[in-house]
Design brief:
Peroxisomal Thiolase, Chain A, domain 1, 9-stranded mixed beta sheet, 3-stranded mixed beta sheet
């Protein structure tokens, strides 16, 4: 039995801020943002978009009634969940009309949560033949206006339908993982702004990659020559490059050039969306599949997942015949191209208009409603969601 990703859906909010203009407003050199960090644009989520609505929008890109009836597991991987107890996947289940005879849960471990969900889904399908699983990575990265981490914010979601005999990519059962208690990044429950030690977190990211990559090679007897491309968790696009460069010296010049070229394809969507935490690795995968035309069935892709705190995992997948017919390349590119650019002043206004940590009722700003699913507000401490699908 082969198990893997049958469908991939992507969503990001309808608004963005330009990094050159943000740098100028902050008194920084634009090259610091566009070259040093590697970001061109940053998605800006209005208060009508949260991890539930973005996740539902991403899954709705491919969901059919037949798919919805077969789902036996719904996993939301997020580190910006909307409730300290209730899983956001339950709201997504309702919004999309998914099978009620399913397990609906939420997984948290910083940016690793969706990978944990993907591995859980793989094991679930192996023991439940005929069923499928929906894994959603959805997050909003916030560090605060004018903070040192502001340039690495973003918002979006990637949804994956995991099945037997997948039509995009199999996920190989072998992987290498490593966990250790590290205080490089965290977000206390009383705030939606993360706390991060950037330099230290980068060091840990590279350490976890080197550890899992070395262990994977020892387990499998593989080298870089066995991979068409490597994809990485991308809190910002230069981060993955730093890790990749630690492995490149083991390959010949031709292979190094190939891996670097495909890496560039994998970061293009991230350059326009920014950091989406649990979804960043899979945003890179979507970007690679959409933009690189040399990929073909049988190519093996390596994936490195990292969640601060910290957990890392290296695993691999193999593209299957006909995978391109299952992609949504034109839809993804149209979504990015049709977004509305906000001035820095409007970006700050939208950023500050968020659901508060308070018991009072709240109504989302309808001026910035966008997407098939929206959060209209909070009434009696209960989030109110609405489907706005137009026939």
């Amino acid at each position: 039995m082969t198990i893997g990703i049958d469908q991939l859906g992507l969503y990001t909010p309808n608004y963005f801020v330009d990094m050159v203009k943000l740098a100028q407003a902050r008194g920084d050199e634009p090259d610091k943002y566009t070259i040093g960090i590697g970001q061109d644009q940053q998605a800006v989520p209005p208060s009508s978009q949260d991890v539930v609505t973005m996740g539902a929008n991403a899954a709705n890109q491919f969901m059919t009634a037949e798919m919805a009836d077969k789902i036996g597991l719904i996993v939301l991987g997020t580190e910006t969940g909307i409730d300290a107890s209730k899983a956001g996947s339950l709201y997504i289940q309702q919004l999309l009309g998914l099978n009620s005879r399913s397990r609906a849960i939420e997984i948290k471990e910083a940016c690793y949560g969706a990978t944990a969900g993907l591995m859980l889904a793989r094991d679930f399908i192996a023991s439940h033949p005929g069923q499928t699983a929906l894994v959603i990575a959805s997050d909003i990265a916030r560090y605060g206006l004018k903070s040192s981490g502001e340039v690495t914010q973003g918002a979006g979601a990637v949804a994956m339908l995991v099945t037997e005999n997948p039509r995009i990519m199999t996920i190989e059962p072998e992987s290498s993982y490593f966990s250790e208690q590290v205080m490089d990044f965290w977000r206390p429950v009383y705030t939606d702004n993360a706390i991060a030690f950037g330099k230290y977190s980068t060091e840990q990211y590279i350490h976890f990659f080197e550890t899992t990559w070395a262990d994977y090679q020892a387990q499998m007897g593989r080298t870089l020559a066995d991979f068409k491309a490597l994809t990485f968790h991308l809190p910002y696009t230069k981060m993955g490059l730093k890790a990749l460069r630690t492995a490149l010296p083991a390959a010949d010049d031709q292979k190094q050039a190939e891996l670097l070229a495909l890496y560039q394809d994998s970061i293009q969507y991230s350059r326009r969306i920014g950091n989406i935490y649990t979804g960043s690795l899979y945003l890179g995968l979507v970007s690679l599949l959409d933009l690189n035309q040399t990929l073909q069935a049988g190519d093996r892709i390596g994936l490195f997942s990292y969640g601060s705190g910290a957990v890392g995992e290296f695993f691999a997948g193999e593209l299957v015949p006909g995978f391109r017919s299952q992609l949504h390349t034109s839809d993804n590119q149209a979504m990015l191209d049709q977004r509305v650019e906000l001035s820095v002043a409007d970006y700050e206004r939208v950023y500050s208009d968020k659901v508060p940590y308070a018991a009072e009722d709240y109504r989302s700003n309808q001026e910035f409603f966008a997407g098939d699913f929206v959060l209209t507000g909070v009434v009696n401490q209960q989030r109110q969601y609405e489907a706005r699908i137009h026939g």
